[in-house]
Amino acid sequence: MSVQKVLELIKEKNIEFVDFRFVDLAGRAHHITLPATEVDADTFVNGVAFDGSSITGFRGIEESDMVMMPDPESVYVDPFTAHATLIVMSNIYTPDGERYERDPRSIAHKAEEYLQAAGVGTDAFFAPESEFFIFDDVRYESTMNSSSFFVDSEEAAWNTNRKEEGGNLGFKVGVKGGYVPVAPVDSQQDIRSEMVRLMQESGLRVERHHHEVATAGQAEINFRFDTLTKTADNLMKYKYIVHNVARQYGKSATFMPKPIFGDNGSGMHVHMSIFNEGTPLFWEKGAYANLSEVALNYIGGILYHAPALIAITNPSTNSFKRLVPGYEAPVNLVYSKGNRSAAVRIPVAAVTPKGCRIEFRTPDSTANPYLAFAAMLMAGLDGIKRKINPAALGYGPYDKNIYELSDEEKKEIRSVPGTLDEALNALEADFEFLTEGNVFTKEFIENYVAVKRAEAKAVAIRVHPHEYGLYFDC
């Protein structure tokens, strides 16, 4: 959409305010709102100033002036505000007009530019499957003398004897019993449908929605693939709508990977493919899973760099509460067709040449989508550049349930890092593939690692409630 079209849309929709947004290092959106009467063509040329020193991981106070440069291709009408508001995603620039090297959205753009400069293809397509929980009650605290959390859901397995309903109505979702049951077991059909309706009104092409495996309100809504940066924009829109519809229903939605113990966590399985001028590059009929050599090399890059990659695709301490065997978590660094116990799965049901893709199942939604998608693309492109053969490196294919392999067989399979610190160690040891084409800079990686180390330390030094059960009577 051109700037002129955006200005016409403001008049056509009687827009009162324009909300300019950018995304921080952690993947959270921030915004500054201007009255529509103050927005004109010059706004899209000169941008909107903000204080970068107040954003974690950005700039110090001595160089805090930064500029949001609006992207007219990203606009949509906010479905929640009382006053008609237009949302515009922005890239971040320094006051002297340089693209800010720590801006996640700019890094995503640079990854797309590198794809074309490398001569591999013209477009990289991404489609995330971002799972989430919808809770009725969320409480937590972490102080000097107290540490606790509490979540609740009317459909949770632990509420089969709850009396607060005025007589328990039953039909609770059992542990690991939540995959696509009908109502009344699935009590959240209407809230998900409302989310979908608003997503469609906001420009997302939604393909389906359903209850997910875990008890206590786990859900999934799938939207159509798009190019890298556009998909990251779409995921930000998706999460914004999920969070706010839940709030309208008096509930709270979270994309936290492991908010409850003893059941499946929430992942963000990411489907990827590369096209060249409309021609799919991952398809070769008759080959293993109909995958071309380009696709296998891309998989090789993903799996070879996976320990470092996971520091960006699974960047929270909570991520590693999900990445444990036994809960459909893809901890095994192998590839397979149709096998959900592998880190990389190749969908094979009803797949056409244009639909041929790979699915990286390890990521979760604590990831900044701009950084995560860019890093995945850079890993895959490195695999193509170096012609990494995943089979030759022992990454598969494994077409049986890996969790049922013998201990001896499992020794041959690499696993994901066990903690955020281990993943950050891997990233420090293996980051050059990210800096090709100056997509990520060494300075960015160092700053990113420092921010994430601080998060890991903040968790590690705090007393955990379970430690009282283990050690209080020592």
From TrEMBL:
It is found in: Cytoplasm. L-glutamate binds at residues 264-265, 322, 328, 340, 361. GO terms for molecular function: ATP binding; glutamine synthetase activity; metal ion binding. Keywords: ATP-binding, Cytoplasm, Ligase, Magnesium, Metal-binding, Nucleotide-binding, Phosphoprotein. The keyword Iron-sulfur does not apply. Gene3D superfamilies: Glutamine synthetase, N-terminal domain (3.10.20.70), Glutamine synthetase/guanido kinase, catalytic domain (3.30.590.10). ATP binds at residues 207, 223-225, 271-273, 340, 354. Residues 104-474 form the GS catalytic domain. Its main location: cytoplasm. The modification O-AMP-tyrosine is found at residue 403. It catalyses: L-glutamate + NH4(+) + ATP = L-glutamine + ADP + phosphate + H(+). The keyword Cytoplasm applies. Its EC number is 6.3.1.2. Binds 2 Mg(2+) ions per subunit. GO terms for biological process: glutamine biosynthetic process; nitrogen utilization. Belongs to the glutamine synthetase family. Oligomer of 12 subunits arranged in the form of two hexagons. This is Glutamine synthetase. It comes from Cohnella thailandensis. The lineage of its organism: Bacteria, Bacillati, Bacillota, Bacilli, Bacillales.
